[in-house]
Specification:
The protein is built from three helices and five strands. The chain is an alpha/beta fold and about 140 residues long. A five-stranded parallel beta sheet has the order 2-1-3-4-5, covered by helices on one side. The longest helix has 18 residues, at about 105-120. The chain is globular and about 30 Å long. The N and C termini lie far apart (about 70 Å).
């Protein structure tokens, strides 16, 4: 205990604080709102207006308005990373999830958590290189 009988508790570290999300949407207001919600929940967020902007670090999830971004381009840049489509566009079989616009903060966070929870099982796997051949 410190002076006056009070002590300072250490802040809790959440799992979200270790998870990075790359957000792609042409609409700056949507990016701003989504970023505030996600950062408020402890996620690290990078954002872009289209898929040409590269995330500063490999993300655990890409959230994209597929009218602003090509799913094929996202897959090339982030192979194996789950994609949450905004606006409901895209091929459902290739996505970890979708979320219709406009969305609430609670719906966004629920969709992100669902995608992260099952992302490893729904995202296409990166092809591994064949093992080197052995010569005898």
């Amino acid at each position: 205990m410190g002076a006056g009988g009070l002590y300072r508790a250490r802040p809790a570290i959440t799992v979200a604080a270790m998870v990075s999300i790359h957000l792609i949407d042409r609409d700056a207001a949507t990016r701003f709102a989504a970023r505030r919600v996600l950062e408020g929940a402890g996620f690290a967020v990078s954002e872009a207006a289209d898929e040409r902007a590269v995330a500063p670090a490999p993300p655990a999830l890409v959230i994209a308005d597929l009218s602003a971004a090509s799913l094929a381009a996202i897959r090339r840049e982030h192979p194996g990373v789950p994609v949450l489509a905004l606006g409901g566009a895209g091929e459902a079989a290739l996505l970890a999830g979708s979320l219709e616009k406009p969305f609430t903060a609670s719906r966004l966070l629920a969709a992100v958590r669902r995608c992260l929870a099952r992302g490893a099982t729904t995202a296409p796997r990166r092809r591994s290189a064949p093992p080197p051949s052995r010569r005898s």
